[in-house]
Write a structure and sequence with these properties.
Residues 55-257 form the Metallo-beta-lactamase domain. The chain contains eight helices and 16 strands. It has helices at residues 36-45, 84-90, 108-111, 132-139, 141-146, 152-164, 215-218, 232-249, and strands spanning 8-11, 14-25, 31-32, 53-63, 66-70, 100-102, 127-131, 169-172, 175-178, 181-185, 194-200, 203-207, 225-226, 252-254, 263-269, 272-277. The radius of gyration is 18 Å and the shape is globular. It starts with 7 loop residues before the first strand and ends in a 6-residue tail after the last strand.
Length: 283
Amino acid sequence: MSILTFPTQKIGDLTITAVSDGYLHASFDFLANIDPADASRMQENAGIKDHTSIHINCYLVRGGGRRVLIDTGAGGFKQWGGRLKTNLLLAGIQPFEIDAILLTHAHPDHVGGLMDASGAAVFPNAELVAHHREVAFWQDDGNLSRAPERARGNFLVARQAFDGYRDRLRTFEGGKVLPGITAMPLPGHTAGHTGYRLESGGQNLLVWGDIVHFPQIQVPRPEVSIAFDQDAYLAAETRKRLLDLASSERLLIAGMHLGELGFAQVERRGASYRVAYEMAAPD
């Protein structure tokens, strides 16, 4: 199967491909600042049949002789996702060919695919790259002791991932992390939640991580937060700022929960915003 079977965009000399890891589900009871019935109605109006389904994207970046992954999906944690490795193989990519993995953050649906069921690293030759605040947060025993019971498993998954790549773990504060890829702090969702701005040949794309989980709800209503946000107010402020930036600059956006098409632009409609999905680049 050709790699262009998957949603793909060209940014100068870089080729960016959305590789699906599958789905997770989250009840609308996890959302704040919206009635669950309203949330369901918005999903229905957008043509989404499975209202509480959240798609999980990972992004493969090829260029300059490198193969880079941005996030690795859930890896089957809580029966979420788990399709990344299979889809990479269908795209013609073997795990040992991945040179670097950039993390937007270390929630299980982003780092679960780093380790297999036996606890071995799935990507044996990849450098793991993450914001230093993100690594520090999940490795802090005080944060673990204060975490609600439902979130403690998240710490175990993150720690296993960091430990599995400890000899190849690189942390950053900001700035350029790889040629053509610059880290962009997007605070609120987690301590070190980070987007990655890709630039080549005068073109730009922003991988914005978990700015939204339900794009058809949270883009037009950015005040709607989700229980996964560590700081719901800050996450909403970051979302509003980024929607303004993306619409003003007409930035091409990629997001881990943006949907199966993988790429979109944000269009301003008066005082509101909407998602306009992009079609894959031609062969």
